[in-house]
Design brief:
alpha/beta; N-(1-d-carboxylethyl)-l-norvaline Dehydrogenase, domain 2; eight-stranded mixed sheet; 8 strands; 51% helix; binds NADPH dihydro-nicotinamide-adenine-dinucleotide phosphate; binds 1,3-dihydroxyacetonephosphate
């Protein structure tokens, strides 16, 4: 059944998800604060600032009027970067219809508070069902209609199933889960690990080191998810292993390409936002507070704050006497 889907955020991912929802027959309204972006989407079916020359779905409409966008929304997709999510939702809160599910599409942890995105929603919009959409999915692939599969998680599995049905179509497939925390942890941590994978390759340490690092990080990711209340098996799926494979191997990933530049000693200014850089210190701190054994994350945080070199980080991580799963 056709729904009114409102996308909050006119960047690459919001625009791509808007195309996907329009492709699935929904009425889609994208809220962007930048009028030039709105005009370009409405009149030229492009968002050149974020998606180059990709032609967007004809039925994707945009507005900079948040009240008009959110009027009668059936489902809201929050596609604003993690560090801006709370401020944006605080402002838009009075406009979001009662009971309307809010689907988090940002991957990350709030740096200033350590909150997961779902905790932000629970604090700001306590009466709304909360879901998260996450998995291996580059915006440009989804906007072009390339085959993609993701997880949609909500603690109420009936809502997750309903959302998965809303967004699944011929090229975009959603698998439902009730493990919201596990799905969110996978998305937030893969960003950090992708920076390290890129740095390993950029420094010329080889694909074998990259694979070893990512595998060790994957074990750590499952431990961290468990400690936060998620299920380790969730990390075996699209929002864990799937996204790790994508983000740790492709220069299309902002996090991986940030790591590549870091490893090569290239200038870092002007690179697109790499969420993993913002989140590594806070995740390392949360793990330390909770006494979670997280050598990979803490080593990446040390690398990013400049206290160790890439060679020392990678060789250190791969030379410890370790048990199988460590
Ligand atoms: N790009 C991708 O391939 C994917 C991204 N994601 C996740 O999606 C999230 C967003 O990423 P992405 O779309 O790529 O980021 P972009 O940098 O492409 O776009 C971010 C958008 O958010 C808008 N924005 C920022 N702050 C606010 C605010 N306070 N109110 C309203 N709008 C705001 C920006 O507006 P303005 O243009 O005016 O600055 C911009 O349109 C990230 O968490 C990312 O991890 C997930 C999967 C894939
Ligand atoms: O989350 C993504 C792909 O699933 C996008 O990754 P980056 O934010 O590293 O570009």
């Amino acid at each position: 059944m056709s729904k009114k889907i409102v996308i909050l955020g006119g960047g690459a991912w919001g625009t791509a998800l808007g195309c996907m929802a329009a492709q699935n027959g929904h009425e889609v309204m994208l809220y962007a604060r930048d009028q030039a972006t709105v005009d370009e989407i409405n009149h030229k079916h492009r968002n050149s600032r974020y998606l180059g020359d990709i032609i967007l779905h004809d039925n994707l409409r945009a507005t900079s009027d948040a009240a008009a966008a959110l009027n009668n929304a059936d489902t809201v997709l929050a596609v604003i970067p993690a560090q801006s999510m709370a401020a944006a939702l605080q402002e838009l809160k009075p406009l979001i219809p009662d009971d309307c599910p809010v689907v988090l599409c940002a991957k990350g942890i709030e740096r200033s508070t350590g909150r997961l995105m779902s905790q932000i929603i629970a604090d700001i919009l306590p009466d709304h069902p909360i879901a998260a959409l996450s998995g291996p999915s580059f915006a440009s692939d989804v906007a072009r209609g390339f085959p993609t599969a993701v997880t949609i998680a909500c603690e109420n599995i009936a809502i997750a199933d309903d959302l998965a049905a809303q967004f699944s179509g011929s090229t975009f497939r959603c698998y439902s889960s009730d493990d919201l925390t596990g799905v969110e942890i996978g998305g937030a941590l893969k960003n950090v690990i992708a920076v390290a994978a890129g740095a390993t390759i950029g420094k010329g340490l080889g694909a074998s080191a990259q694979a070893a690092l990512v595998t060790r990080a994957f074990a750590e990711l499952r431990r961290i998810a468990l400690a936060f209340g998620g299920r380790p098996e969730t990390l075996m799926g699209l929002s864990g292993l799937g996204d790790l494979m994508l983000s740790c191997s492709s220069p299309q990933s902002r996090n991986y390409s940030y790591g590549l530049a870091l490893g090569r000693g290239e200038p870092l200014e002007g690179l697109l936002l790499a969420e993993g850089v913002a989140t590594a210190p806070v995740i390392a701190e949360l793990c330390a507070q909770r006494q979670i054994y997280a050598p990979v994350i803490s080593t990446i945080a040390a690398l990013l704050n400049g206290s160790i070199t890439i060679d020392a980080a990678v060789t250190g991580l791969l030379s410890r006497p370790l048990k199988n799963e460590d």
